[in-house]
């Protein structure tokens, strides 16, 4: 049997070159980098939830702004500053043109009360439009004001 000289190696030298089974075992039990792997797994989910929250907040903010515009236009008609329902609709469309170019506006006077309705596609209000649950909906604003003049 040829002499390989392994018996003369110190224990320290043998530990420097562990067998492949020991390397594999150490690799399996090593926990370095586990936080990175977990972050890569969870980060897209957290980012998606964050985008969903932002989209919903923008939709609710747009609804609030549109509600204020509709109430102001109805109030203007109610006190006589605007004289026709077409003028009310034009004022609403003009005020909402930057918020939603696709807004549908309708105003009607019935029995001494002006009724206005605005329907805005939620895609006009959302930032990302990634969520079909949101993008397939519409925001409807209705307002009624008794005529005072």
Descriptive account of the structure:
The structure is a single chain. The chain has one domain (31-146). Helices cover 54% and strands 17% of the residues. It has 6 helices and 3 strands. It has a 3-stranded antiparallel beta sheet with strand order 1-2-3. It is rod-shaped and about 95 Å long.
Terminal CA distance: 118 Å
- DSSP helix fraction: 40-55%
The averaged pLDDT comes out at 86
SS strand fraction: 15-25%
Q: Treating each run of at least 4 consecutive H or I residues as one helix, how many helices?
A: 6
In this structure, how is the largest beta sheet organized? 3 strands, antiparallel
Radius of gyration: 34 Å
The oligomerization state is single chain
Summarize the helix and strand pattern as letters: HHHHEEHHE
The helix/strand class is alpha+beta
**DSSP strand tally:** 3
Kindly report the spatial arrangement of strands forming the biggest sheet: 1-2-3
**Unreliable residue runs:** none
Number of domains: 1
Overall spatial form: rod-shaped
